[in-house]
């Protein structure tokens, strides 16, 4: 039996669902039940009736699925698939910011650890960050851990003061895009679409700024545009090309999230066979983090 068939048989036998982020390897995307961005996957995780959730992504995503499904077994195929951006922020940094800005709510990007989420008032994704911040009555809002996303929110919500924590927090994959990439994209023609984790000058030089889920919607809404320059992780080009095979999606081949690429079909098979590696979140962190995530799910996109 091929590895692919073995995985599909195991999945059925164990009543499992496979969720995969848009940045996963093509073969993982191909075998997943649902492929999406952090928001879409966290929403699906909260709705699934399957007994086991196998999360092909990085640790904070699997933690989020576990927080939303405390009674289910959540597995991550590679234990050390981490997000350096998420790991850059600590609960102590959040507490220090709260002391410096009393009364300011804490909005944390979903790319944060469960321990940090437990210190937040509400979670956001790049898809709904503006909506979440706008929904708050306070005029001063602490936002972490991505300073580029915080700057994007600031531009979209000028009547509030956004306080980024930690200063300069960034995703190394998105922060690599430069003016030269914009120039190269302009020279190739087509529309430039970048992720809000890119630097402010890249956001300003692009035609559209959108989350990965938002990129799919934008392409869908502009069927007449056939060439797109995608300034995010490389595998988003695979995802889009699969959905829109007649379109051209230019990506930067070296814009790779190393941790997202750790998961292979062999890891996925082992994960299902041995039911490893189970994601465990302590009950006190789980409860506090869940209330911040659920607040986001209520506000929605
Ligand atoms: S692409 Fe960036 S933000 Fe996303 S998981 Fe990788 S390091 Fe973290």
Question: What is the terminal-to-terminal distance?
Answer: 42 Å
Global morphology: globular
- Small molecules bound: iron/sulfur cluster
Q: Based on the structure given, which CATH architecture of the largest domain is correct?
A: 3-Layer(aba) Sandwich
Largest sheet features? 4 strands, parallel
Number of separate structural domains: 3
Question: CATH superfamily membership of the largest domain, which one?
Answer: NadA-like
CATH C-level category of the largest domain: Alpha Beta
Strand order of the largest sheet: 2-1-3-4
Q: What is the average of the pLDDT values?
A: 96
| Percentage of residues in DSSP E strands | 15-25%
Look at the helices and sheets and give the structural class.
alpha/beta
The radius of gyration is 19 Å
Explain what this protein looks like in three dimensions.
This protein has 301 residues and is of the alpha/beta class. It folds into three domains: 3-83 and 260-280, NadA-like (Rossmann fold, 3-Layer(aba) Sandwich); 85-171 and 285-299, 3-Layer(aba) Sandwich (Rossmann fold), CATH 3.40.50; 174-250, NadA-like (Rossmann fold), CATH 3.40.50. Helix content is 45%, strand content 16%. The protein contains 15 helices and twelve strands. The chain has helices at 3-13, 26-31, 38-47, 59-68, 84-87, 91-100, 114-117, 129-135, 147-156, 179-188, 200-205, 212-221, 235-243, 265-274, 283-299; strands at residues 16-21, 34-36, 52-56, 73-75, 106-109, 122-124, 140-144, 161-164, 191-194, 208-209, 227-231, 248-250. The strands form three sheets. The chain has a four-stranded parallel sheet, sandwiched between helices. The chain has a four-stranded parallel sheet with strand order 6-5-7-8, sandwiched between helices. A four-stranded parallel sheet has the order 10-9-11-12, sandwiched between helices. Strand 1 (16-21), helix 2 (26-31) and strand 2 (34-36) form a beta-alpha-beta unit. Helix 1 runs parallel beside helix 14 and helix 4 packs across helix 15 (283-299). The N and C termini lie far apart (42 Å). The relative contact order is 0.17. The mean pLDDT is 96. Iron/sulfur cluster is lined by residues 23, 58, 83-85, 111, 171, 173, 233, 257, 259-260.
